[in-house]
Amino acid sequence: MTAPRISLRQSLLVAADALARATGQDTRATASALRDVIAAVEHHLDTLAIESRGDDGRLPERLRPMAAAIEERLRGILVSLWEVEAALRDGEDASARLPPLAAALRETADDDLEMVFDSLRDTGALD
Fold first, then answer.
1. CA dihedral defined by 64, 8, 113, 67, rounded to 10 degrees?
2. How far apart are CA 14 and CA 12, in angstroms?
3. pLDDT of residue 6 exceeding 60
4. Would you say 70 and 45 are in contact if contact means Cβ atoms under 8 Å apart?
5. DSSP string for residues in 77-119
6. pLDDT range class, residue 13, cuts 50, 70, 90
7. Which of 34, 83, 87, 125 could form a disulfide with 120 if both were Cys (CB 3.0 to 4.6 A apart)?
8. What is the pTM of this model?
């Protein structure tokens, strides 16, 4: 069984769910899910950097420390995902590492959504 593909536009929560579902799948399906999750995390990191950096960043100044913390956590998750992907290529069973990564990604996604809602409140979009 192959995992459903993740659109880069989908949320980190979707990526976390796909990662959790990859646990216990065959190596090919797990590797495919990992590639999709890695691409989604990389895309989100790029977007977050654009939104929170410099004078023309869209994220309010008061939320930029939160964005930096989320970015740091995502980078750590990304490194761990790369390590799992390498372990799979080396023929190791890395499935036990997926649930904690999925949980960390889900928690980071929740914080990211909270930051987005705070940003929308600042602009009056959620009054």
1. -10
2. 5
3. no
4. no
5. HHHHHHHHHHHHHTT---GGGHHHHHHHHHHHHHHHHHHHHHH
6. confident
7. 125
8. 0.84
pLDDT band at 125 (very low <50, low <70, confident <90, very high): low
Cβ atoms of residues 16 and 106 within 8 Å: yes
Cα distances (angstroms) measured from residue 51 to each of 3, 57, 70, 86:
30, 5, 13, 31
Give yes or no for residue 76 having a pLDDT over 90: yes
Q: Which residue has the tokens 């990662």?
A: 19
What does the alpha-carbon distance between residue 127 and residue 115 come to, in Å, rounded to a whole number?
16
How many whole angstroms separate alpha carbon 73 and alpha carbon 1?
A: 30
Q: How far apart are CA 34 and CA 119, in angstroms?
A: 30
CA 59 from centroid of its chain's CA atoms: 19
Is the torsion defined by CA of 42, 45, 51, 53 positive or negative? negative
The two tokens of residue 90 are 């080396």
